[in-house]
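For the sake of transparency, this paper describes our internal protein records without simplification. The record that follows is passed on verbatim for readers who wish to inspect the format:
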Amino acid sequence: MSVKKQYRPRRSYTADIKQELVDLYRSGRHKCNIIREFDMASSLHGKWIAQSDNSGSSRKRTTARRSEWQELIELRKQNQQL
């Protein structure tokens, strides 16, 4: 007489939704309220926050990194010419 645990169906989130949920957290909303409101696992939201921090996936960081890489490439080219 074992009772089977009912699992919730697997959901997928688009990159835009993930970024919006991370931005909500960074704007000052409490993580527990976001998780409760969107009915998601705490670990999943934490993983997205960590990935955003590590990858620089916010738009401002991406633009800044891109310009830094372009500058680095140009400086290396100049060094090779010297």
